[in-house]
Amino acid sequence: MKNWACFLMLFLSVVSCSKDDANVQPAPTESMYFPSNTNSSWETKSLSSLGWDQNAVQALKNFLVQKNTKSFMILVNGRIVMEEYFDGHSASSNWEWNSAGKTLVATTTGIAQQEGLLNINNKASDYLGTAWTSMPLPKENLITVRHLLTMTSGNDDTKQYVIKSNLTYVADAGTRWAYSNVFQKLTDVVAKSSKKSFEPYFNEKLKHKIGMDGYWNFGTIFTVYHSTTKSMARFGLLALNKGKWNGEQIINEAFFNESISTSQNINPSYGYLWWLNGKASFMIPGEQTVYPGYLVPNAPADMYAAMGANDQRIYVVPSKKMVVIRMGEASDPTNPNFAVSGFDDALWEKIRAVIK
Q1: Which residue in 71, 157, 231, 290 has the fewest CB atoms around it within 10 Å?
Q2: What single-letter DSSP state applies at residue 70?
Q3: What average pLDDT does this structure show over 286-312?
C-alpha cells in the first residue's frame, strides 16, 4: 500500500511537470522602439542586457578618438545602446552627412514615385527638359531617372561640378558604373515633378514624418545635408524598418527593397545610392576596377550603408536589428577617400569585439 502511494505521488508529479512544461511560453521578442517626433526622449538599453563585452568598449572608444570621430551611436531595436561624443561635439551639434545624404535623395525620389509624381523608368529629360546635358540628344535620351539613382548615367565622372557643360558623354547609360555628383539632378527631378523646391518637399514627406532636424546646403559643387547625430540615427532606424516609422509606411517597402538590392550588373555592391555588403565584388569612386570580395569584410554580410566623405556613416544590420552611426573628420586626413581608407573594416573589427 505504501509502495502504491509513493507511485501515485510520483505519477502526479510527472503529470504536473509535463503540464507546466506544455504551458511554458517562449520569451517575448522585444518590440521595435521609435523615439517621439515631438520631444527629445529616447529609450536606452544596457550593453549587459545584450550580453555584450563591456571590456571591449574602451578599445572601441580609443579607436574612435584616434580616428577623429565627433559622434558615435549604436541602436538595437531602436534603443540607444551606445552614445558617445568627442572633441567638443554634443548631442545638439550639427555635422555634415556628405555623400551619406545621397540616401535621403533616393528615398525622397521613391516617395515622389509612390505619389504618382514621377516614374524612375522614365527619361530624366521628361522632368528636366531636353538638353540638360552636353551630350548628343540621342545619348541624353538614354538616361532614365533610375540611371541617376544607380550611378550609371554614362557621364564623365571626372567633372564633379554639375553644370551642363560638364555633363558630357563617356558611355551609353546603363553600360558603365561611375560615382558622380550627377545624382544631384534627382533633386531637380523631384522639384519639377512635385512643383515644389526640393527641400520643402523633403521636409514635408520625410524629415518631419520621422522627427529629424537638419538642413540642406546646396553648394556650388556639393549638395550636403547637415544634422545632429540623433537625426542621422532616426533615418537609419527608418531604413532598418524598410521605410516604416512607428506604424506608418513613409516610403513603400518594395521601393526600399529595390534601393538596398544590387541595382545593375556592373557594381553588385551598389543599390539606389546605398552601399551593399556581402556581394561577390565591388567598385569604388574614381576607379573602374572591380575588386573581389565583400565591401567591408569584418561587417555582417547583410549590412547596407550610407557612406560619405570623411567617413560619415550609417550602417544598418537587419540580422542584428542594429543601426550604427559615425560622424566626424576624416579618419586618416592623408587618405580621406572614404572608399579606400580602410576605416570601415577596422571599425567593424572593434565593434565585433564588443557585440561578440
Answers
A1: 290
A2: E
A3: 96
Helix (H, G, I), strand (E, B) or coil at 73: strand
217: which strand partners?
A: 224
Nearest to 32 by CA among 200, 180, 236, 266: 236
> Which residues have C-beta within 8 Å of that of residue 231, sequence separation ≥ 6?
211, 212, 213, 214
Per-residue pLDDT band at 334 (split at 50, 70, 90): confident
Calculate the average pLDDT of the chain: 92
User: Which uninterrupted H or E stretch holds 51?
Assistant: none
Say which residues have a Cβ less than 8 Å from residue 99's Cβ, sequence separation at least 6. 306, 307, 308, 309, 312, 338
Residue (of 328, 286, 290) closest to 310 by Cα position: 328
Query: Hey, which bits of 45-190 come out as E strands?
Result: 69-76, 79-85, 95-96
DSSP string for residues in 247-300? TEESS-HHHHHHHTS--SSS-TTB-SS-EE-S-SEE--TT--PPEES-SSTTS-
What residue ranges in 37-119 does DSSP mark as E strands? 69-76, 79-85, 95-96
Where in the chain does DSSP place strands (E)?
Answer: 69-76, 79-85, 95-96, 215-218, 223-227, 244-245, 248-249, 275-276, 281-282, 291-292, 304-308, 312-317, 322-328
- In 10 A of CB 244, how many CB atoms? 18
Instruction: Give which of 245, 252, 321, 253 is closest to 36, Cα–Cα.
Output: 245
For residue 227, the surrounding DSSP H or E stretch is strand 223-227
Question: Exposed, middle or buried by CB within 10 Å (0-12, 13-18, 19+), for 109?
Answer: buried
Q: What is the model's pTM?
A: 0.91
Q: 305 forms bridges with which residues in the sheet?
A: 275, 315
Q: Say how many C-beta atoms besides its own lie within 10 A of residue 236's C-beta.
A: 25
Count of CB atoms situated within 10 Å of the CB of 330 = 18
Mean pLDDT across 226-240: 98
Closest CA to 262 of 304, 291, 290, 298: 304
Q: What is the largest distance, in Å, between two alpha-carbon atoms of the chain?
A: 104
Q: Distance (Å, rounded) from C-alpha 88 to C-alpha 55?
A: 25
Task: Name the 3-class secondary structure at 171.
Answer: coil
**Which residues touch 86 (CB under 8 Å, ≥6 apart)?**
64, 65, 69, 70, 71, 72, 328
> Could you tell me if 309 and 332 are in contact, meaning their C-beta atoms sit under 8 angstroms apart?
no
Stretch 143-148: mean pLDDT: 98
